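# step 3/5: fold
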Amino acid sequence: MLTEIVNNPKLEKLLISTGNILNVDNATPLRTSHEELLDSLKLCTDCQAAAAAATTTTADGKDDLQLVVIGHSDNEAHVLRAQKELQEKILENQRNEISIGAKLFVNNASGVGGVQQAVTALMDILKVDCVDNLVVAYHPHGEAKSDGADVNSLKNLWNVLQEFAEKKQICQLGIADLDSSSLQQLYSDARVPPTIAQINLANCCVVPPELKEFCTQNDIQLLTHGDPEILLADNDFTIPGYTVDWVMRYQVHVRCRGVLTAKGYIVQATKKDK
């Protein structure tokens, strides 16, 4: 348990970065993305326990087990695990030699501000000026957009993302779990339309023909995924009494070899009203 946060009643906002989970992660590759995220958050708890027992800097100078709690204001804290190791891993190759992809899971229906914070946090933590692609999965209260939820709310989130794209801070934008009709609505109104569409084959064993046709006609890359609608529920969060606002997953690949060199999660949560 992150006692510094639990014991501080003033902290309303919390951001946790797991660092590069590949540097310590030996779990089975067959686990779900939900299980991987829970294991990743547990790394922070384990780091605190290790820090309480002994000095946590490794022999080669990397802070693989270091847990840094930064108070950005009286009511906000950032918990950053193994920041040094993550940045060293990214800097092993030139920026044009790596591809950085991310997926943003938004749980909150009023998440426009959260999208801004999520993308900014991603680039701040990775210490980069842009990412190659970002896919957003918008499931407020677990309602799938393909089931007819209000696309207008999604368009508000998309407006924020396309502002980053227009500044060349995101090279490609993508969307997850939209049916053909909703995707067409988003596409037609967007200044920066999606070039990636993800569908969950757990809910749809066959790609809908109309969706496939629309993606083909508009040069949209159609991909599959296995992520749940809610990647991290409040009850599963590391610290009780907080509502999960959003989760960002990032992956860093070396382009020429297709090797995954870094992977991690960033989570923002807000303390629940009593």
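# step 4/5: annotate
Residues 42 and 238 are 7 Å apart (CA to CA).
# step 5/5: archive (pending)
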